C-alpha cells in the first residue's frame, strides 16, 4: 500500500504528534508525517518535528489580514507537501472554511472528552468539574462546528474519587496516544466509510 502523507497541526507540546510519528516510524500506519505546522512559534511540537527530520513550519496569524488569508497560507504549505490527511493534534483554533473546503472530509481531530460532552477548551477539566464517573477521548472528522464532526473512535477512562483534573488528563492522554494513530491507520487503509454523520469501520 502506498504511504499517505500526513500534515499535523499542533499548538503546544506535541505528545499526540509524537505518537503519530512513532506509529509511522514503526510501520503501524502506512503513512509519513510530511509536515508539522504550528500557530505558535514556541510549540515544542515544532522541535519534535525538527528532531525527526520533518519539515516544521510556524505560522503567526497576526501576520495575516484575516483568518482566510492565514488558512490559505497553511493550505499552500500542506499542498506543497502533498498532504492527503490533515491531523489536528492539540491545535487550539477552530478550522475555518478555507481549510475545510481544501481538505473536505480529510481533517481529523483528537478531543480529550467523550463528545458530544464537553467540547471546546479544557475538556478534561470540564468533565472532572462536572463530576462524571467516566470520561475519555474522541477522534472525529472535523466539520465547521466546535468538535461536532462525525466520530471515528472513542476510548473511555474511569474517573476516581481522588483524581485531580491533571491526573484525569494524564489517564486520558494515554488513550489519546493509542486511538489517534489507530484512527489514522483506519483512514490510511481505506477502512472508514462515512454515512451522514455515522462513520462505519469496514473490514
Ligand atoms: C491533547 O490532550 C488534545 O486532546 C487536546 O490538547 C492536548 C494536546 O496535547 N486538544 C484539545 O483540547 C482540542 N480542543 P499534545 O500537544 O501533547 O498532543
UniProtKB/TrEMBL annotation:
The active site is at 111 (proton donor). InterPro entries: Formyl_transf_N (IPR002376), Formyl_transf_N_sf (IPR036477), GART (IPR004607), GART_AS (IPR001555). (6R)-10-formyltetrahydrofolate binds at residues 67, 92-95, 109. One of its GO terms (cellular component) is cytosol. Keywords: Purine biosynthesis, Transferase. It catalyses: N(1)-(5-phospho-beta-D-ribosyl)glycinamide + (6R)-10-formyltetrahydrofolate = N(2)-formyl-N(1)-(5-phospho-beta-D-ribosyl)glycinamide + (6S)-5,6,7,8-tetrahydrofolate + H(+). The record marks 147 as: Raises pKa of active site His. One of its GO terms (biological process) is 'de novo' IMP biosynthetic process. N(1)-(5-phospho-beta-D-ribosyl)glycinamide binds at residues 14-16. One of its GO terms (molecular function) is phosphoribosylglycinamide formyltransferase activity. The keyword Transferase applies. Catalyzes the transfer of a formyl group from 10-formyltetrahydrofolate to 5-phospho-ribosyl-glycinamide (GAR), producing 5-phospho-ribosyl-N-formylglycinamide (FGAR) and tetrahydrofolate. This is Phosphoribosylglycinamide formyltransferase. It comes from Desulfoscipio gibsoniae DSM 7213. The gene is purN.
Amino acid at each position: 500500500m502506498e504511504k499517505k502523507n500526513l500534515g499535523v497541526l499542533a499548538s503546544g507540546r506535541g505528545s499526540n504528534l509524537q505518537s503519530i510519528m512513532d506509529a509511522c516510524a514503526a510501520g503501524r500506519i502506512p503513512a509519513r508525517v510530511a509536515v508539522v505546522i504550528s500557530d505558535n512559534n514556541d510549540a515544542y511540537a515544532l522541535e519534535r518535528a525538527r528532531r525527526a527530520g520533518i519539515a516544521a513550519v510556524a505560522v503567526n496569524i497576526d501576520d495575516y489580514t484575516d483568518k482566510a488569508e492565514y488558512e490559505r497560507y497553511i493550505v499552500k504549505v500542506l499542498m506543497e507537501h502533498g498532504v492527503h490527511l490533515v491531523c489536528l493534534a492539540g491545535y487550539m483554533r477552530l478550522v475555518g472554511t478555507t481549510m475545510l473546503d481544501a481538505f473536505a472530509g480529510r481533517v481529523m481531530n483528537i478531543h480529550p472528552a467523550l463528545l458530544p460532552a464537553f467540547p471546546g477548551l479544557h475538556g478534561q477539566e470540564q468533565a472532572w468539574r462536572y463530576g462524571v464517573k467516566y470520561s475519555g477521548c474522541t477522534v472525529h472528522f472535523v466539520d465547521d462546528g466546535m468538535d461536532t464532526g462525525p466520530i471515528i473512535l472513542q476510548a473511555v477512562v474511569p474517573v476516581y474519587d481522588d483524581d485531580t483534573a491533571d491526573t484525569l488528563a494524564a489517564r486520558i492522554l494515554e488513550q489519546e496516544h493509542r486511538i489517534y494513530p489507530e484512527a489514522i491507520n483506519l483512514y490510511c487503509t481505506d477502512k472508514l466509510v462515512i454515512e451522514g454523520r455515522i462513520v462505519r469501520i469496514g473490514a
